[in-house]
Automatic annotation (TrEMBL):
GO terms for molecular function: acetylornithine deacetylase activity; metal ion binding. InterPro entries: ArgE/DapE_CS, Bact_exopeptidase_dim_dom, Peptidase_M20, Peptidase_M20_dimer, Peptidase_M20A. The lineage of its organism: Bacteria, Pseudomonadati, Pseudomonadota, Betaproteobacteria, Burkholderiales. Residues 197-306 form the Peptidase M20 dimerisation domain. It comes from the Bacteria. The keyword Membrane does not apply. GO terms for biological process: L-arginine biosynthetic process. Keywords: Cobalt, Hydrolase, Metal-binding, Zinc. Its cofactor is Zn(2+). This is Acetylornithine deacetylase.
């Protein structure tokens, strides 16, 4: 079945892509744009902010007065493009066929004319991950407001997803405070419109080691921070090997067991100085059936055992741990009503599991049945020349228009 993307959907997607909402920046321009757009339709937005009020989540109910609602969720931030080799401006929101003869852009025109040419693409940071989805939701706001469906739709657009799903926690807490109890949640992360029912968790930590400095000829009077850090690094590595060897496989993931890895290591000032300080970052990507917090406890217990001998040499020597992010895994089910609804709306019989983290575990953890299903492919997300095809956006639009007509999710 082929679908035609609305001109308004494309225009809104281009508008959102042109706003720089890299996670390090404010997203208030985008949030302001969306809330103004909704305000013109008579829909009030509820904003929840980060501590210094530079970023906001937006929550809005379309079809107010209906008893229950379905959350349509997306994050507004994007990853940066520093150091990436782009052939187009990441903020250009250019629409073109790719590759083209001679590599040049093809004419930009009305979406339906372009669609007739094959599979044009909208290029730009966030096109697939996930401004395309937010734009199509916004472009169809009236469908949700005027629908005969017994359900309201809640737009839930968050900040700081890409750096640890921080914003949406505020949004979910505020939703609870307001007594909003959604029936289900659809997260439009790029799955090529195939409903995804599981992903791993991402738990990331920083470990700082304080030792005791000395001339390297006097090692017994010192505590070598790098060497102590290395032992904990070795522990993380041992755990990773343990997962690979012993963990019960969860098929459907690229790597069907939990993984652990160390991503950064810093320490030392000179060859002849026993280092006082070292620090490293590591992560666990746990299967939905494995407990990442338990993994971290195992690391803490191991470090604790190393500390006794360190403190005998220097009382203030030891380890300190900080949490960088804890994004819980997500596990839905092929038989969940929301999964079956997503299959019906997308015309897909398949379900999939994805390798990336999303906000799904947080919505599910709040008691809301959740599915991940959105336009574009994750293989384009975070990459140079990120794009989403207009065909994918059109399928997303058909999906959301179908949602507006949905009478039951059972
Ligand atoms: Zn994303």
């Amino acid at each position: 079945m082929s679908h035609i993307l609305s001109a308004r959907g494309l225009e809104l997607a281009q508008t959102l892509v042109r706003m720089n909402t890299v996670s390090a920046n404010s997203n208030l321009e985008l949030i302001g744009f969306v809330s103004d757009h909704l305000a013109r339709l008579g829909v009030r937005s509820r904003l929840t902010y980060n501590a210094d009020k530079t970023k906001a989540n937006l929550f809005a109910t379309l079809g107010a007065g209906k008893r229950n609602g379905i959350v349509v969720s997306g994050h507004t931030d994007t990853v940066p493009w520093d150091g990436q080799d782009w052939s187009v401006d990441p903020l250009s929101a250019m629409v073109q066929h790719w590759p083209t003869e001679g590599g040049g852009p093809v004419p930009v025109g009305p979406a339906d004319e372009l669609a007739a040419l094959g599979s044009p693409r909208l290029y730009g940071r966030g096109a697939a991950d996930m401004k395309g989805f937010i734009a199509i939701a916004l472009a169809n706001a009236e469908h949700f407001m005027e629908s005969e469906s017994p359900f309201a739709v809640h737009f839930a657009f968050s900040y700081d997803e890409e750096v640890g799903c921080f914003g949406v926690r505020e949004l979910i807490a505020d939703m609870k405070d307001q007594g909003v109890k959604p029936l289900a949640c659809i997260i439009g992360e790029p799955t090529s419109m195939v409903p995804a029912i599981a992903h791993k968790g991402v738990y990331r930590y920083r470990c700082c080691v304080r030792g005791k400095e000395a001339h390297s000829s006097l090692t017994p009077q010192s505590v070598n921070a790098i060497e102590m850090a290395a032992r904990v690094v070795g522990k993380v590595r041992d755990m990773a090997e343990g997962f690979e060897q012993n963990e019960r496989r969860y098929e459907g993931f690229d790597v069907p067991f939990s993984t652990a890895s160390v991503g950064q290591f810093h320490g030392g000032i000179a060859d002849n100085v026993v280092p006082r300080d070292a620090a490293f970052h590591y992560e666990f990507r746990n299967l939905p059936t494995a407990d990442a917090q338990q993994m971290q406890k195992e690391v803490l217990a191991y470090a604790d055992r190393l500390e006794g001998p360190m403190k005998k040499v220097a009382p203030d020597a030891g380890f300190s741990f900080e949490t960088i992010c804890e994004v819980p895994s997500f596990l839905g089910s092929a038989s969940d009503p929301i999964t079956r609804l997503a299959q019906r709306l997308s015309g897909e019989e398949r379900v999939t599991q994805v390798a990336f983290g999303t906000e799904a575990g947080l919505f599910k953890g709040a008691g809301i049945p959740t599915i991940v299903c959105g336009p574009g492919s994750i293989t384009q997300a975070h990459q140079p020349d990120e794009f989403v095809t207009l065909e994918q956006l059109a399928r997303c639009e058909a999906f959301l228009q179908g949602l507006a007509k949905t009478q039951t999710i059972a």
